[in-house]
């Protein structure tokens, strides 16, 4: 697509370049690594652009994003921020005017939860064992540490 004529010649920016700028901007907005192939693949299927030339010769870009959002996030706020990011990046890198950024939220997802840590309870038969008077019950790890300390003392003597 012809972009601009200068004294030195023509400047052309392909539609693929404009699309790549929008895709990269979308990936950055999501805070993913743009070099990650999974993120790029998903973004390519999510972001689309349309270049339009007006009667007066000006060229504009329309961006369409079909995406998903994490449950609990304010959809209007999220979509507005995404619109601003895509518009600003495409305009500043290409010099083209972005006429429209349409965001369509098509799905809501939940972050996978980390499994809850369940503390193991002492089996009842061990807890019910009688203790000798004045003797503390120690864990096997504590017993090993005590043995190591006793060995150190013997070596020092």
TrEMBL record:
InterPro entries referenced in this protein's UniProt entry, alphabetically: Asp23
Chain segments carrying region Disordered: 115-157
Pfam families listed in its UniProt record: Asp23 (PF03780)
Similarity comment: family membership: Belongs to the asp23 family.
Protein name: Asp23/Gls24 family envelope stress response protein
Organism: Mesotoga infera
């Amino acid at each position: 697509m012809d972009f601009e004529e200068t004294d030195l010649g023509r400047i052309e920016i392909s539609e693929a370049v404009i699309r790549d700028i929008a895709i990269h901007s979308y990936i950055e907005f999501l805070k993913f690594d743009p070099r990650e192939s999974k993120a790029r693949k998903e973004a390519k299927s999510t972001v689309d652009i349309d270049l339009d030339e007006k009667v007066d010769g000006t060229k504009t870009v329309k961006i369409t994003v079909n995406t998903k959002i994490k449950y609990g996030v304010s959809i209007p706020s999220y979509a507005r921020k995404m619109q601003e990011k895509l518009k600003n990046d495409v305009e500043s890198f290409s010099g083209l005017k972005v006429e429209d950024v349409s965001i369509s939220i098509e799905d809501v997802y939940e972050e996978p939860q980390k499994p809850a840590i369940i503390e193991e309870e002492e089996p009842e038969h061990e807890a019910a064992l009688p203790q000798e008077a004045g003797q503390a019950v120690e864990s096997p790890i504590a017993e090993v540490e005590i043995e190591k300390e006793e060995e150190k003392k013997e070596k020092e003597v």
